[in-house]
Amino acid sequence: MHIQDIFAQHRTTFSFEFFPPKTDAAGEELFTTIAALQALQPSFVSVTYGAGGSTRDRTHDLVVRIERETNLTAVSHLTCVCHSRDEMTAILDRYAASGIENVLALGGDPPKNSAHDREKDAFRYANELVEFIRSRPGPNGRGFGVGVAGFPEGHPGCPNRLQEMDHLKRKIDAGADYICTQLFFDNRDLYDFRERCDLAGIKVPIIAGIMPVTTKAGMVRMAELAAGARIPAKLLKAVSRCTDDAAVARVGISWATEQCADLLHNSVRGIHFYTLNKSDATRQIYQNLGVESSVALRAG
Ligand code: FAD
Questions:
Q1: DSSP 22
Q2: Chain centre distance of CA 237
Q3: pLDDT above 90 as % of the chain
Q4: 79 C-alpha vs ligand 1 centroid, how far in Å?
Q5: Residue 114 predicted with pLDDT over 80
Q6: Whose CA is closest to atom 33 on ligand 1?
Q7: For residue 125, which atom of ligand 1 is closest to its CA?
Q8: What are the TM regions of this chain, as residue ranges (predicted)?
């Protein structure tokens, strides 16, 4: 389903993010996870794109498989880094031919340990990619649904928070339908970001990125990977008291549950769960919220 129709039909959206597995075995395991999460009736799911286009085929194949083998809508992430205009055209035309309607347009980061020259990329910033995607016909002539990234705590690449809002606005003016945020652990950051967007004249839906901490190692890795995400001292303290990962997961899931309950109370337009290809934490959060699926959450 086109993302514009999803937003028109769902007062609050609930979505799950996956990454393309490296092996066939991990791919099958992911489909067990997807089957478990399908019962939660998300509005859509999304599939990440490896740094520098490293998962170009795997992202495509996973998105297409999800749409063919489940009743879920799958959004494909796509990044500017390491792609020429011809490559972008080929990627988008292939999605259109497969009936894929939605893309999350990202700047992306250059692959680690690579001396990639960004001057060679057709698009430097995500707003240029949004504009390009908008110029393509999409699967049925309606054009693709397009999302973009937002950073409640700021993106490290831009030290000026006012300028950063101008950059975000440029992505919306280029035709983005919605913003999906970086994960955050303090809802005040999301509410402040939402207000700053409003002041900047950004009126598209903003969906909030939530990632429950489930292991200490995962928390450290997350702090490394998730640009701009701060872990509040209260959460750090609670995690540091834990003697094993089962306890860390209980703390992390409880924290994420509180975040979700508060976001719903404050009329968030959508919640996006970073699942790390696992279903347990997300299913536990739904259970803690007292519901069996997104349908009950959408009902308010
Ligand atoms: P941009 O919007 O291009 O912004 C990048 C930086 O440049 C920002 O600091 C911005 O303020 C600044 N900027 C923008 N326009 C201008 C301009 N005209 N002049 C000067 N500065 C400018 N990465 C992946 O590799 N694969 C994924 O699948 C992926 N999925 C993601 C999903 C979400 C929801 C989020 C939040 C991030 C994801 N990322 C992914 C990470 C993302 O690619 C990086 O954080 C990247 O550094 C920023 O992407 P962007 O789309 O915000 O880029």
A1: S
A2: 27
A3: 87
A4: 8
A5: no
A6: 149
A7: 3
A8: none
At 173-217, the pLDDT tens digits run 999 999 999 999 999 999 999 999 999 999 999 999 999 999 999
Which residue CA neighbors atom 44 of ligand 1 most closely? 108
Task: Given the cut 0.90, state whether the ipTM is greater than it.
Answer: yes
Q: What would the pLDDT profile of 43-53 be if each residue is shown by its tens digit?
A: 999 999 998 88
State which of 13, 18, 106, 118 you would mutate to test the pocket of ligand 1, scoring each by most atoms of that ligand within 8 A of its C-beta: 106
Residues noted as catalytic: 17
Closest ligand 1 atom number to CA of residue 19 = 28
Length of the chain: 300
CA-to-CA distance for 206 and 216, rounded, in angstroms? Answer: 29
| 259-260-262-263 Cα dihedral, nearest 10 degrees | 110
**Residues 144-171: b if buried by 16+ CB within 10 A, e if exposed:** bbbbbbbbbbbbeebeeeeebbebbebb
Which atom of ligand 1 lies closest to the CA of 52? 25
**Residue bearing tokens 């019962």:** 39
Q: If you average pLDDT over every residue of the chain, what do you get? A: 95
